[in-house]
């Protein structure tokens, strides 16, 4: 089709190529078969992009102090505010807090304005919460922040070790590539190291559910083992590395025997032995690591403990092997290229290096250059809290939700003199605190580049018109720069201009001394940039480079890779009598971070419609909470109220709460309010995976749910959470006291002042049960069901009625029962988001047709045949079916 645009997915760091075809009212989305990250595959989030590009809830105009404004006023307010505060208190009194979801061009401008023109390094990014331990680990080991591998190495490996990575849900297309690789090569072994049994374990030959935070002990033990069994690659170690003696000595001292390692990690010794044996005997091994490693108060050490094992064995720089940090955000890597972190300079140069500062300042011809590191995210918000930083510009991130000790972050912003927020949405927990709101172009409207986990630069291209007065992030930054008096430096006509400058800087004074070099791309014409095909950096002679370090040359002063002596440390705060459980946080399959976009898509809201805590049945018993009930999860720092899910996939002593929910989607589910603000001393990355907490029952007087075609304001409820459905919103609700007059209560909650509507109601005062359906003509407009306990009908059949313009008599008569009339099926909770296949349909088909595999389910119901994200769950349903039968 000729109106199809080749672009890149705006979600995870896999960086899949997407084909977008706008139609009248929607956008058709398909995977790009030519893109080397995905070869046409997409996951449920990518495939649902069309459901998230509408303008509902979009921020379309600038606002100043809560009122609609114009660009001139808004930009002047920002520029004047920043200028005044810099003049009165110096450059370190202002800050930017940016994001791995900015395009490289936006990011480059922000960094240039702060470090070269305002003259402060107080620009940090949400990548601090995400990749900074990997960055620091790479720099210590390789002398540069280089990811050595390519995705194709996953297909060429014989062993893949996934450490602290829930690949099936967080990098689903790479997971699909591994599934395929295992089918093509049954010898491929996969090991998952994660305290939880996750969907990723479905593919694992071995799962090590280690004690939270104990990874460094395990990898130190592996290092000592590799040496013991003669797997040290003497040639590689001798010629290309330094530090292996101290690293080995520390590993031997710290780790001890296999039994002591197993005990410290809470693992069966035979499983540790099997892991060590497989790693030792397999030359082509990839160790993938993600947030289970990075988000730790000793994350950098853990990264190096893993890299050590690859350096000792020389398993790096060749096909099918290497340490491989999967990046989270679409442009986490691009942000690192432009020096988005407070301790870096542009083009992989260092702020602490005087020569680098001279190079960058010379290239920019800037009046100044920041000469000391800026504040890292947690310190930055502390400084705002303390009144030292008086103005902050937040771009493409939602820190009131995603920062640890989030209530403190919220309080800090409430006190801050000038809070500027650029976002695409009008109502987020962070936009609520802005003095100036700047409407940004979103995915599909903006133009630029992103770099994925394998260092591949891809274009994001616009295929939709700019909505309202929204503008590109780079444009806002450049305009503020100009208004602060830096006209020449920010006189860009397009994203292309910025990209060429960024590319040129990467080659400036480089001569092979720095890993990041795309200088050749500085010669791209506008047309070349427009048609730029995905390419991996560094770019040499027109070609990208798949693998780093194949020549054994590293970017340290002596050119040798460094092995580091690692002394494992436990998480900063351990569970205690008051807070006996360790809180783990992370992602669910179909939501993206703070849900501002994925929360809109009905298809993505069905898999996990409510915030929850997953807890082992044993701990649930101790805490006196039961399946489906509500619970409080609280720490020294704060509290959430979420639904209880019992699961033996959790190890005892550990609970999991997703990071996504926030005040826009639930009453009390911002889990970062509970998370401790402890950071890694080297990287500054917070320990988002281990906070001591207590779980306790929360017993409201009644429970209920509400389905409504309109989005409603939830006031006066003890608990609520909202999910998007097809043509309706679903609210789970609870109240602390039984209402005296339920009908009046319902009319207030549903904002009913309309006399033409028809209420169908049922009240059992003695049983405290109330059910009401608000009808407009023969169409359901909303309904609310309450009961003292959980004896409420299934939501799925009622939800299905919202797709109907006219109810049949039979459906009408089923309304207050909330049950389908005889002969109609209730499909149940949706498992396959792509084809909306419900759990009841799947279970029925498994039983009725004796289905034995996910493929057979796919053949009958289509479930699992598109993105494959639900295949692990289909397998669990199959297994549960067999248990039932036995
Ligand atoms: N669906 C979805 N996908 C996403 C995102 C999203 O929001 N939603 N976000 C993207 C981003 S920005 C990122 S950074 C990535 C994150 O991708 P991942 O890092 O894979 O995701 P997480 O769920 O944060 O955590 C990974 C796993 O670490 C485990 N873990 C916790 N503690 C430990 C420990 O002590 N040791 C070990 N070995 N493991 C531990 C958790 O149980 C969890 O299963 O996902 C990206 N992809
Ligand atoms: N407890 C806990 N906390 C965590 C984590 C965890 O595992 N556990 N993970 C951490 C990690 S790895 C990450 S990456 C962070 C993510 O956390 P955040 O970055 O805070 O989350 P997002 O929801 O992605 O925020 C992006 C914001 O940018 C807006 N936006 C989207 N597109 C654009 C655009 O083009 N321009 C502009 N200006 N705005 C745009 C969105 O509407 C949204 O408000 O969370 C971190 N916090
Ligand atoms: S794996 Fe999914 S979310 Fe990640 S880039 Fe690909 S389609 Fe987007
Ligand atoms: Mo992330």
UniProtKB/TrEMBL annotation:
Molecular function in Gene Ontology: 4 iron, 4 sulfur cluster binding; metal ion binding; molybdopterin cofactor binding; nitrate reductase (cytochrome) activity
InterPro entries membership: Asp_de-COase-like_dom_sf, BFD-like_2Fe2S-bd_dom, BFD-like_2Fe2S-bd_dom_sf, CT_Nitrate-R-NapA-like, MoPterin_dinucl-bd_dom, Mopterin_OxRdtase, Mopterin_OxRdtase_4Fe-4S_dom, MopterinOxRdtase_cofactor_BS
GO biological process, alphabetically ordered: cellular respiration; nitrate assimilation
Organism: Candidatus Tenderia electrophaga
The protein, known as: nitrate reductase (cytochrome)
Gene3D superfamilies in the record: 2.40.40.20, 3.40.50.740, ADC-like domains, BFD-like [2Fe-2S]-binding domain, Dimethylsulfoxide Reductase, domain 2
Pfam families xref list: Fer2_BFD, Molybdop_Fe4S4, Molybdopterin, Molydop_binding
4Fe-4S Mo/W bis-MGD-type domain residues: 2-57
Keyword list, A-Z: 4Fe-4S, Electron transport, Iron, Iron-sulfur, Metal-binding, Molybdenum, Nitrate assimilation, Oxidoreductase, Periplasm, Signal, Transport
Cofactor or coenzyme needed: [4Fe-4S] cluster; Mo-bis(molybdopterin guanine dinucleotide)
């Amino acid at each position: 089709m000729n109106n199809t645009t080749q672009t890149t997915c705006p979600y995870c760091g896999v960086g899949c190529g997407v084909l977008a075809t706008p139609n009248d009212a929607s956008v058709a989305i398909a995977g790009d078969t030519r893109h080397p990250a995905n070869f046409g595959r997409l996951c449920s989030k990518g495939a649902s992009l069309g459901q998230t590009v509408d303008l509902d809830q979009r921020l379309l105009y600038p606002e100043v102090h809560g009122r609609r404004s114009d660009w001139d006023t808004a930009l002047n307010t920002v520029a004047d505010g920043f200028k005044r505060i810099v003049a009165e208190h110096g450059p370190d009194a202002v800050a930017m807090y940016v994001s791995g979801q900015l395009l490289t061009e936006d990011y480059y401008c922000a960094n240039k304005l702060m470090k070269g023109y305002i003259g402060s390094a107080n620009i940090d990014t949400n990548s601090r919460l995400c990749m900074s331990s990997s960055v620091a680990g790479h720099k210590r080991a390789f002398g540069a922040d280089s990811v050595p591998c390519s995705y194709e190495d996953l297909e060429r490996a014989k062993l893949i070790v996934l450490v602290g990575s829930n690949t099936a849900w967080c990098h689903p297309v790479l997971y699909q590539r591994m599934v395929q690789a295992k089918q093509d090569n049954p010898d491929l072994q996969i090991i998952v190291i994660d305290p939880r049994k996750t969907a990723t374990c479905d593919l694992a030959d071995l799962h090590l559910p280690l004690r939270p935070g104990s990874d460094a002990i395990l990898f130190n033990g592996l290092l000592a083992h590799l040496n013991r069994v003669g797997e040290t690659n003497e040639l590689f170690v001798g010629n290309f590395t330094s530090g292996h003696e101290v690293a080995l000595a520390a590993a031997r001292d710290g780790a001890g025997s296999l039994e002591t390692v197993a005990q410290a990690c809470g693992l069966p010794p035979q499983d540790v032995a099997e892991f060590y044996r497989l790693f030792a005997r397999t030359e082509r091994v990839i160790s993938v690591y993600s947030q289970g490693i990075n988000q730790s108060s000793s994350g950098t050490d853990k990264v190096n403990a893993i890299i050590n094992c690859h350096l000792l064995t020389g398993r790096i720089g060749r096909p099918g092997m290497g340490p491989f940090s999967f990046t989270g955000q679409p442009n986490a890597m691009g942000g690192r290229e432009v020096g988005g972190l407070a301790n870096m300079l542009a083009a992989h140069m260092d702020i602490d290096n005087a020569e680098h500062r001279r190079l960058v300042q010379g290239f920019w011809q800037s009046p100044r250059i920041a000469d000391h590191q800026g504040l890292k995210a947690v310190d930055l918000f502390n400084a705002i809290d303390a009144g030292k930083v008086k103005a902050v510009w937040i771009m493409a991130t939602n820190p009131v939700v995603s920062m640890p000790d989030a209530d403190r972050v919220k309080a800090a912003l409430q006190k801050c003199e000038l809070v500027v927020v650029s976002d695409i949405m009008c109502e987020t927990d962070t936009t609520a605190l802005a003095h100036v709101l700047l409407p940004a172009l979103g995915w599909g409207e903006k133009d630029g580049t992103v770099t994925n986990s394998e260092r591949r630069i891809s274009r994001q291209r616009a295929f939709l018109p700019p909505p309202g007065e929204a503008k590109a992030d780079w444009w806002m930054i450049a305009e503020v720069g100009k208004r602060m008096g830096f006209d020449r430096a920010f006189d860009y006509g397009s994203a292309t201009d910025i990209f060429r400058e960024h590319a040129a800087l990467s080659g400036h004074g480089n001569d092979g001394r720095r890993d990041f070099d795309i200088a050749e791309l500085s010669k791209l014409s506008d047309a070349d940039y427009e048609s730029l095909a995905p390419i991996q950096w560094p770019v040499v002679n027109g070609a990208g480079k798949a693998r780093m370090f194949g020549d054994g040359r590293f970017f340290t002063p002596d050119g040798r890779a460094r092995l580091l002596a690692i002394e494992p440390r436990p998480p900063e705060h351990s569970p205690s009598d008051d807070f006996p459980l360790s809180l783990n946080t992370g992602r669910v399959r179909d939501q993206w971070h703070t849900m501002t976009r994925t929360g809109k898509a009905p298809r993505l809201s069905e898999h996990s419609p409510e915030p929850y805590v997953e807890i082992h049945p044993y701990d649930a018993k101790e805490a006196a909470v039961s399946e489906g009930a509500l619970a409080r999860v609280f720490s020294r720092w704060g509290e959430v109220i979420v639904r209880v899910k019992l699961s033996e996939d959790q190890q005892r002593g550990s609970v999991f709460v997703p990071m996504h929910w926030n005040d826009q989607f639930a009453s009390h589910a911002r889990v970062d309010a509970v998370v401790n603000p402890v950071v890694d001393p080297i990287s500054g990355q917070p320990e988002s995976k281990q906070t001591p907490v207590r779980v306790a029952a929360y017993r409201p007087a009644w429970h209920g749910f509400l389905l409504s075609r309109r989005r409603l304001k939830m006031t006066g409820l003890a608990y609520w959470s909202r999910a998007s459905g097809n043509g309706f919103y679903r609210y789970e609700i609870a109240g602390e006291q039984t209402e005296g007059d339920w009908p009046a209560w319902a009319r207030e909650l549903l904002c009913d002042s309309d006399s033409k509507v028809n209420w169908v109601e049922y009240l059992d005062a003695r049983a405290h049960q109330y059910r009401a359906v608000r009808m407009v003509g023969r169409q359901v407009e909303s309904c609310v069901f309450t009961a003292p306990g959980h004896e409420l009908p299934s939501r799925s059949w009622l939800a299905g009625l919202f797709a109907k313009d006219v109810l049949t008599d039979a459906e009408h008569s089923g309304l207050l029962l909330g049950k389908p009339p005889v002969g109609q099926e209730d499909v149940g909770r949706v498992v396959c988001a792509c084809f909306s296949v419900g759990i009841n349909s799947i279970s029925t088909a498994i039983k009725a047709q004796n289905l034995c595999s996910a493929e057979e389910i796919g053949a009958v119901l289509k479930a699992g045949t598109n993105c494959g994200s639900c295949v692990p769950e289909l397998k669990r349903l199959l297994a549960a079916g067999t248990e039932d039968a036995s």
